[in-house]
Design a protein that fits this description.
Layout lengths: L5 E9 L4 H19 L3 E6 L4 E8 L2 H6 L7 H9 L1 E11 L11
Antiparallel strand pairs: 1-3, 1-4, 2-3
Amino acid sequence: MKEFQYAVLYVFQVKPGRQDDFEEAWAAVTEEIQKENGSGGSRLYRASETTYWAHALWPSKEALVGASLPVQAANAREVMVDACESIESMGEGTLVSDLWSSAGQ
């Protein structure tokens, strides 16, 4: 059985000119959440100049719900949120089939 069975999909609409701020802050927030809450991390993708999406991995929905934002990530989260016009959770769910190649890791 895979370690990270639950995933959340986020879509970020980033303000023009704030892409670098967003990307740096997103990485800092993600790294702290992974370190402090045991998430499986996240991958960030750019769909267009100002639209990004990411999927975050968790051991379970309970782990996600019980997670808290580490104090060290508060400033980075503020920058990330300020750099965005909107942040939406587009869905979440439990792993059914995993055909992800480990070669790319």
